[in-house]
Structure formats: structure tokens, C-alpha cells
Write a structure and sequence with these properties.
Blueprint: H1 3-27, H2 33-39, H3 44-47, H4 49-61, H5 65-72, H6 74-93, H7 98-112, H8 115-126, H9 132-160, H10 165-168, H11 170-184, H12 200-219, H13 229-251, H14 265-295, H15 300-324, H16 330-348, H17 357-383, H18 391-429, H19 437-452, H20 460-490, H21 492-495
């Protein structure tokens, strides 16, 4: 191993260490909510604010990462972000009330928001262009490992120690990351601190627009969407703020969000594809465990066994894709990855009440392979030809759309599940007619069986209705899986609008 390879490896470890704990913290709280609620005397709805607060502040900061890097210098911003994340982790673990925990989760989201785009841009600059596939394989493995490790790690720590330790464990890692970044990371000349006027209007519009949008996506289903005055109010705030943001940023001398990057056809196409890829991923991995546990009666452990191989498949596919991308046209690899993702969700749409364990495992595993083959060529093509002085800004916008795709996927699929279950229940209940001979025969048979067990025969109607609800919900799941399958296929033509970056041994040229 030569010195350059060792140096790149050290940079990769340095930037991925804090990024990994930031991604883990996005999902680590989910499994600890009951313990947090009991410890801080909070209700179920109140405790979910610990998740929402982090997601909202995270969403606001991500697109600002490029601007903040120019304002205070990228290395300074990276170290400040890790320090703020580490400090807020300590305060979250020391929270004395739910209000204090929510506040420090907001601070934690502010600290963590810039870590993902910063690490991605540093990796792409550190590795030569022909090694960008390897760089994104390293980044992708860290990004995919977080959602897998987060719930497992959070559950183990909460059960064996305390929910407070899911935050305290970040402190030694954060301190080590600060030291490594001080020693290893160096800012190139174009990422040094630049004196510029702060765009306060852009800052306000961005915070209001994206914060409100993330709130809507996270709370919409619980509030019955636009039947709620609260959701309508936040929707108006979001739309007005985002429109004003676009107008303001277009005329601003130093915009917080560089929307001019969307003039690049490849970047716009790639970011749009990434939005729908993560809509498909998060939509499917949210629906699958719900189906397994609520319909099929699986325990949390067995539901985890179904999901686990998919994560491992992604981890194995990414290095393979990183090696392959320099040998084949990345467009072909990306198109194959998207088709595999679509195939997996189509297979999920074929689930029924008699599906066995391994028939659940294989579609999730295939989805993992598809994601591994999709992420590397998509990210490499989208970002590799961006001028290096704009890399952090481009990475910020790219990761914003990735996060929003996941949030929209969760909100869309859970809402569709609820609506379609009601639709199918209404249609199926038409057949529960006491004047229908078939219905009367089955009710009498069930009643006779209940009577033989010493139970009241009148319970036959209840059992038949419960089975109807189970079947209507199963049909709703298949509808949702089929829809996200169709959505990801719709963006396949965008792949062919993207341009392949020219081969070069150095970083992208400055424009």
C-alpha cells in the first residue's frame, strides 16, 4: 500500500467517523421512546418530538452546509459541527425534562446537519476521479450502516444500560473525531474562509420553508393531513417561504443555497433520481416490518431477521459497484440498479397471508443489492463533474433531496396504507351479507366450532369481520408496494439524460 493510498484511507476514516454517529442518531432514538417517555413523564405524542425536532433542524442545516463552509472555512465548520454535536449529545443524555431533551435534540440536529455533505465533498476531492467509485462506496457503506446499526444499538444500550447512554456514547467518538480532523484535514485554497454579507432573508426563508415542510411530512398522517388547520397553516408557511427563497436566492450576491447548480442537467437529473430512490427505499423498509408484525404476527426479532440480510446485501454490493464503475458505463449500472429495486418492490406487492419467511427475505435482499448498485454510479455521475469549489454546495443539495425523498416515502406510504385499507374494507364488507348463503354457511361452521370449544357461537361474526380487516389491510400493503415500484420506474428515463464524467487522474477542474 503506497503513501497516497494510506493518506486517503486516513482522510476517509476521519470524515466518516462523525458522519456515521450522526446518521445513527437519526434512528437510534426510535426504539427508546417508551423508556424516554416513562423517565420524563411524557405522553406518546409528546415523546415523538424528540425525533421530529432532530429531523427538522437537520433538514434546515443540510442545504446551508456549502454556504457555512464559505463563511467560516470548511475545516472550521466541520470541527465546530462535531463539537456542537458532541456537546449536545452530552446535554441530551443529561436532559431533566422532555422540553430540555427536545431543545438539545434541535441543537444536535444543527450540529449534525453539515457532517454528511461535508464528508461526501471531502472524499470526492481527496480521491482522484477514477477512484470516485471507491470513495462513494466508502461513504455509501457508512450511510447505509447507520440505519441498520441505529435501532439495534439503541435497543441494546437502552435494555442493558439506560436510554441516556445512547447519547453519552457519542462523546468519546466525538472527541476523537475532533482531534483527528484537526490533525488530518486541510482546507484547499478555494475552501478558506471568505468575507461576505450574510443573507438574512434567505436564512429566514430557508428555515421557515424546510422546517415547516419536514414538520408536515413527519406529523401529517397523525393530524389527518389537510383536514387539520395546523397542517394547512404549516403548508402555507412552507410554500410561501420556499417560493420567496427561490426569488431571493436568484438575486442574492452570496446565496445561502446555490440554486444555480440546478441549471446543470446531470446534477438535476441525478438529484431527482436520488429523491425517488430513497422514496422507494424508506417506503418499503417502513411498510415491510409493519406488515410482518401487524398482519403476519412476527415478533420484532423475526421482523429484524427479515430486514437484516437486505442491509448486508447493500454492504456487499457497494464495494463491487465501486470497482465495476470504472470498467463499465455507469449509466448501465445505474439503470440495472433501478430495475432491480423496482423488481424487489414488485415482488413485495405479491405478498399474501400465506407467504413464508424466506419469501419475505428474498425481496428485501434483492432491494439491498439494487440499492448498492444504484447509489455508487448515481452519486458519482451526479457530483463528479461539479467544479470542486462548488462540491460542498452540490453535496448539500443532493443530500437534502435524499433526506426529503426518505421523509416523503414514509409519509406517502403510511398515508396510502391507511386510505387503501379503508377502501378495501368498504368493498369487502359488501360481501358480509346475512342473506348470502355462503356467508351463512361459514358463520354457522365457525359458530359450531366456537360452541365445541365452550365459547359463545355469536362470536362468529366478530371473527369473520376481523379476518376481513386483515385481508383488506393486506390488499392495501400490496397497493402501496406496487405504487412505489411504479414511481421508481418513472425516473428511469432521467438516467439517460445524465452525462458521464470525463476520465481524469485529478479532481474536477475549477471553473
Amino acid at each position: 500500500m503506497n503513501r497516497g493510498t494510506m493518506s486517503r484511507g486516513l482522510v476517509a476514516l476521519t470524515v466518516m467517523l462523525p458522519t456515521l454517529i450522526e446518521i445513527i442518531d437519526t434512528s437510534v432514538v426510535n426504539v427508546s421512546l417508551n423508556h424516554i417517555r416513562g423517565s420524563l413523564s411524557a405522553g406518546i405524542d409528546e415523546s415523538t418530538w424528540t425525533i421530529t425536532a432532530y429531523l427538522v433542524s437537520n433538514a434546515i442545516i443540510i442545504p446551508m452546509a456549502g454556504w457555512l463552509s464559505r463563511l467560516i472555512g470548511r475545516k472550521n465548520y466541520l470541527i465546530a459541527s462535531i463539537a456542537l454535536f458532541t456537546f449536545s449529545s452530552f446535554m441530551c443524555g443529561s436532559a431533566w425534562s422532555l422540553q430540555s431533551l427536545v431543545f438539545f435534540r434541535i441543537v444536535q440536529g444543527i450540529g449534525g446537519g453539515g457532517l454528511v455533505p461535508l464528508s461526501q465533498s471531502i472524499l470526492l476531492e481527496t480521491f482522484p476521479r477514477e477512484k470516485h467509485g471507491t470513495a462513494m462506496a466508502i461513504f455509501g457503506m457508512g450511510a447505509m450502516l447507520g440505519p441498520i446499526v441505529g435501532p439495534v444499538l439503541g435497543g441494546w444500550i437502552t435494555d442493558n444500560w439506560s436510554w441516556r447512554w445512547i447519547f453519552y456514547i457519542n462523546i468519546p467518538i466525538g472527541i476523537l473525531s475532533i482531534i483527528m480532523n484537526i490533525i488530518v484535514i486541510q482546507d484547499p485554497p478555494y475552501m478558506k474562509r471568505v468575507k461576505m454579507k450574510i443573507d438574512y432573508w434567505g436564512l429566514a426563508f430557508l428555515a421557515a420553508g424546510l422546517g415547516s415542510l419536514q414538520f408536515i411530512l413527519d406529523k401529517g398522517e397523525n393530524e389527518d393531513w389537510f383536514a387539520s388547520n395546523l397542517i394547512v397553516t404549516f403548508a402555507i408557511i412552507s410554500v410561501v417561504s420556499l417560493v420567496l427563497l427561490v426569488i431571493n436566492e436568484y438575486y442574492s450576491e452570496h446565496p445561502i443555497v446555490n440554486l444555480r447548480l440546478f441549471k446543470d442537467r446531470t446534477f438535476t437529473s441525478g438529484a431527482t433520481v436520488m429523491f425517488f430512490v430513497f422514496l422507494n427505499l424508506f417506503g418499503s423498509i417502513v411498510l415491510l416490518p409493519i406488515f410482518l408484525q401487524s398482519i403476519m404476527g412476527y415478533t420484532s426479532f423475526y421482523a429484524g431477521l427479515v430486514l437484516g440480510p437486505g442491509g448486508l446485501a447493500t454492504m456487499l454490493a457497494m464495494p463491487f459497484a465501486g470497482k465495476l464503475i470504472s470498467k463499465v458505463n455507469p449509466k448501465r449500472l445505474l439503470a440495472i440498479g433501478i430495475l432491480i429495486c423496482a423488481l424487489s418492490t414488485y415482488m413485495m406487492s405479491q405478498f399474501n397471508l400465506t407467504t413464508d419467511f424466506w419469501t419475505f427475505v428474498w425481496p428485501r435482499t434483492i432491494l439491498g443489492i439494487g440499492m448498492g448498485l444504484t447509489f455508487i454510479p448515481l452519486t458519482t455521475m451526479t457530483l463528479s463533474h461539479i467544479p470542486r469549489e462548488n462540491m460542498t454546495e452540490a453535496s448539500s443539495l443532493y443530500n437534502l433531496l435524499r433526506n426529503l425523498g426518505g421523509s416523503v416515502g414514509i409519509a406517502f406510504t403510511t398515508t396510502m396504507l391507511s386510505r387503501r385499507a379503508q377502501f378495501h374494507q368498504t368493498r369487502l364488507v359488501e360481501h358480509l351479507n346475512p342473506f348470502d348463503p355462503a356467508y351463512s354457511i361459514y358463520r354457522d361452521r365457525i359458530g359450531a366450532f366456537l360452541g365445541s370449544q365452550g365459547l359463545p357461537p355469536a362470536g362468529a361474526d366478530g371473527l369473520m369481520y376481523r379476518e376481513l380487516v386483515r385481508q383488506s389491510t393486506t390488499l392495501a400493503f400490496t397497493d402501496a408496494f406496487l405504487t412505489i415500484c411504479a414511481l421508481i420506474l418513472c425516473v428511469l428515463p432521467l438516467v439517460f439524460l445524465m452525462k458521464r464524467a470525463a476520465a481524469s487522474s485529478g479532481p474536477p477542474p475549477a471553473h
